[in-house]
Structure formats: structure tokens, C-alpha cells
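During the second year of the project, the team shifted from modelling isolated chains to modelling whole assemblies. The rationale, set out in the original proposal, was that interfaces cannot be judged from single-chain predictions alone. As a representative example for this report, we include one of the complexes processed in the last quarter. Its constituent sequences, exactly as entered into the pipeline, are reproduced here:
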Amino acid sequence: MYKNNLILQALKGDITSQIPVWLMRQAGRVLPEYRQTRKKAKNFIEFVKTPQLAAEVTLQPVDILNVDAAIIFSDILVVPEAMGLPYSMAEEKGPIFQNFIRSASDIQNLKIAHTDQYSYVIEAIQLTKKHLNNRVPLIGFSGAPWTLFAYMTEGKGSKTFSTAKKWLYSNPSESHQLLQKITLSIINYLKDQIKAGADVIQIFDSWAGVLNKSLYQQFCIPYLKQICNEIKEVPIILFPKDGFFALQDIQQLNYNAVSLDWTIEPEWVIPLLPNKTLQGNADPCLLYANEKTIEQETIKMLNKFSSVPYIANLGHGLYPDIDKEKVRFFIDIIHNFKR
Amino acid sequence: MYKNNLILQALKGDITSQIPVWLMRQAGRVLPEYRQTRKKAKNFIEFVKTPQLAAEVTLQPVDILNVDAAIIFSDILVVPEAMGLPYSMAEEKGPIFQNFIRSASDIQNLKIAHTDQYSYVIEAIQLTKKHLNNRVPLIGFSGAPWTLFAYMTEGKGSKTFSTAKKWLYSNPSESHQLLQKITLSIINYLKDQIKAGADVIQIFDSWAGVLNKSLYQQFCIPYLKQICNEIKEVPIILFPKDGFFALQDIQQLNYNAVSLDWTIEPEWVIPLLPNKTLQGNADPCLLYANEKTIEQETIKMLNKFSSVPYIANLGHGLYPDIDKEKVRFFIDIIHNFKR
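Output from the structure prediction step:
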């Protein structure tokens, strides 16, 4: 079906002879070409909402970096916006919501997101698929329920998300109501992405790490379970950033793959997640090193994951100031690795 | 020696019949009394540098919260400042260094901190000891070498500390030089705190969590080892926040106790850290909950740590908007717990 099918094979559980690779935030500021396209929109939100521009930057890393999948350029906060909470993105400072969830009645006022509210993402996927012309698969994505809940109750980024966690501790039943509404919105959103052509889905639980095993069991696992049980059409990957404590519970869910951050030791996680494809987990900061160090550390990682179905990636998104040539070098090492 | 000796007993390895407790950031904005005293200084740095005020807020939680130890009110950035990098503290935004380490020559220009540069902390300890009048022990502290390095190279707070980590990956030998200078400064600082009367030392490795096992082994363990091998006069506690991956290596070091964040499961850590006193690890956000939930979760924690030498604490500092009455309630549950 695709000229390059490696990622889909790995997600089926194959130990592919060549290891596939894509990078979180590969469509991003690390590419001068992205920075050029970015100038065509007056702000980040308009950029995300213009399908032609989103498709353009989605395709760039396929051509420039030789990655084995594209991931649609968008933002995890599309879903809260579609539910009724518009936001703005302050350069360097992250997202700010004009209104955010402060009371139970705010939860009642939220919509379940439907196609009309995020049609620009669907159009961007359709456009991207056309231009990709079956070269590589396209990954669609969403934030996880907890991570979206965190922004929707905190109103902005945070190191601790203590306001969001205050909801979990002091209003557990309202928190469940909100998480359920978010989950139904995510499921609609993902189904539409798949209809538009997304071949794989990744769920970003970027703020898993501020919780613990018990909170994750109560407030994340049930909703992550609904999502993976509803999304049967394509393979689905879960990325529980800094959520080492949740991996045993995640193993029980129907995710095809788990994406790992760099704090997770391969030797520790491989026996913990049998039958899952693993993805990750180089520290993005490794790409600040010289070529010799990048090569050594990358080969070490590939050897450690070599015995299981595996997709190489970073343990988090690329940082904007990483040299594009180092990114290519990293990808070439992976492609040249003999399993 | 002290009317209340519980913490020192627990640090010796005793399973005390009453469980001792103190809280990170107990001398802080959670107390209205602290906020009153804080007004007497024109900014945070002046506040930290005024021994009378620092001693005043150090004593407050002993009287008001009934904790089993005082911890000297100060800031981990006293050491970088003493080495030659002054900083300011922007409310809500955290520390900003006017100059920070950008080159190898900047490292050469740094001093090893000596008594003269941090005498205000030493005076604050002497004053506090006098007023404490042997009621409870006094904890002195320092940031860990990596955590201070992180601020000194990043120049400010960060979610990722990617600039600091860039140093480790791209300039490992200069990074070691800087870490060594910081370590020698910390040792001077701690020795002086102990001479002034500190009965216990805690090392805060607040940014352990952005590293991984291999980086921690290379850039943290050797310096943490120097520190614990030099500080033989009093018990010493290490708090490697979010550093679950480092605990096996920390077990090998001569720290009497390890302070744990809330992501660490007692069942998992107890066999990993035999012969260490454990400290922690309630999620500070638990104190946003109602009394019933606070009681249930606290008792659960106490039962889980009940079989080992143990000091109850939070898994991180108190948040400023936590209700002081909830803090007292939490402490009372711990004191009333029958082991």
C-alpha cells in the first residue's frame, strides 16, 4: 500500500530488518523551511487553522529528513478549542486560555467536539494524504484526556499543574464528568482523522508525570481504555510522558505501541510491556552533542531495543535550536543500523 | 539533647513509635505569619539576606504547625550567588540570573564559595538555634551540584533545562569542571552550616528528573558521593526529585536518608533502599482535598512506610495556596498514628 511501510509493519508487531524512525515535533522550528512557512500566518493559531500551511509543514520532514512517517501538523489544544475554550499561543510562554474551567457549570457549558469545530484539521489531513501520494503513512494525534483536562482547568502551562490536580483531589466526580466529555470529543476527533486518511494515531499524555500510579489508575486509565477500545481501524500509540509508574496498567490496555521518554531504561521496560511495539526514546538533548557521541548513544539505544518490535524516536519533541544536520545524522544512523 | 528528638532517631535508623514529620517549604507562603514577615523586606533576596527575618520565619512552623524539625529559611541559589552569580527573584516567574555560565572562561571566573559570601545564612542559623532553645533539631540544606549547575547554565528556571543539558552532552569536561567547583562550594557551605548548629543536612536535587540513569551516573553520583563522604558530622538526606531511575545508584552512597517524591511507590522503593531512612512522599495537592480524603490517603501512606525507619513529609514543597488548617490536620494525623 505504501512505498515505505516500515512503521505499519513495526506496529503490527514485526521485527523489521530496517528500523523505522519519525520524530516528535519533526514538523517544527528545527527546519528552516518550517520557519519560512510559519511567516505566512499572522499567529500560531491561524497557522494551525490554515490547511494548506499545515499540510505544507507536515510534508517537509518527509522530504528533508527522510523520516518513515509524516505526522499531521496541529496542536493538542484543538480539542479544548472545539469544545468551547479558545486559546492563544504566546511565543516562548505557551498557551493561554481566555476562559478556562473554574466551576461545575463551566463543565456543563462545554460541547462535545464534532467535525464542524475542527474541520481545518480534517482538510489538512486530506491535503497531506494527496501530496504524500502513498510515500509513507500519516500519523494523526490527540492529547490524552488528562493532559487536555490539565490545560483546561489550569488555563495555561505549568510546571506542577497544581490547579488541575486540585480538581482531581477536591472535585473527583466533576473531574470525571469533564474527563468523560473530553474523551468523547477525542474519540469523535480521531474517528474523523481516520476517515480523512490518518493511518496511525498517537495519544500524547504529555503531563502524565505530575500524577502517580493511583491518580493515573483513577483518572486516566478508564478514559485511555475507552479510546483504544473505540479506535479499532488503525494502530494506536500511547505516549505517557514521565509516567513510568503507569506502565503496568498501560500494558493491560489495547494500545499497539507505547512511546517512551528517555528516563525509561529499555532493559526495565521490555519485560514490562510484552506484546507491545515500543517507540522512543533518545533524549532530544543528545542531538546537541558531536557526531561521535550521537552515533555511540544511538547505536546503544538501537541495540537495546533490537529484540522487540520497535520504532525509533526521541523521548520528547525536538527542541527548536537543534541543528537540522544533526537530526539528519541521527536518522541516517538508524536507517543504516543492521539488526 | 532535644526535647523532641524523633527526627534524629529516625535518621539513626530507629523505627520510632511516633512518626516524625516536617514539610518542605513549611517556612513559606502557606503561613499568614510568613506573609506578614515577608513584608518587612523589599524583595525576596533582601528577605533571604536578613538573618533576623530568616530566623523568624524558620521558627514559625515549629510553633504554628507543630513540626518535628525546623529547616533554615533560605534559597538554594545562595551558593551560585556566593560563587559570583547574583540573581533576582521575579514573583511567579522564579529566579533570573543577570549573568550566567555561557563559556569555559565563565567557569574559570567563578569563586569557590567561602564563609564571607554567605555569612548571612550562618548568622540566621545561629539566631535560629538560640531561639529554638533545643526544642527540635534544625535542618540545614543546599541544592545538589546538578541542580545548581542547571540554574547556573540555564540562567533561569525551565521545564526542560535543555540549555543545561546541552552543556552535559556537548561540553562534558567543562561540565565536570563546573560541577567540581560547585561541589567544593557546597561542602564549604554545609560545613559552615554544621559549625553554626545545623543538626541535619538535606540536599535538594530538584531537577534530577530531567536526566536519566546514565547522565545521573556520570554527572551527579560522583559529586553527591564527595558531599556525603565529607559530611560525617551530622545525618544527611538526599532528595532526588523525579529521579526514580537513580535510586539504585543512590543506595550505594553514604546518605542516611532518601526523600521521595509522590511518584515513588513505597512497595517498590523499600526493597530498593535497604538501610536507608525513607522520607516523604505525599502529593502536596492531597492537601487540597477534604479532611476525609486527606486522612484516608495519609494513613495509607503511613501504613506502607510503617516497617522502615521513616520521616513523614510531602513529595515536594507546600504550594502557597494550601489552607494552613489542612496542613495542621495532616500533621496531626501523622502524630496520632499508632505504629
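The CA atoms of residues 294 and 330 of chain B lie 7 Å apart. Chain B has a mean pLDDT of 97.
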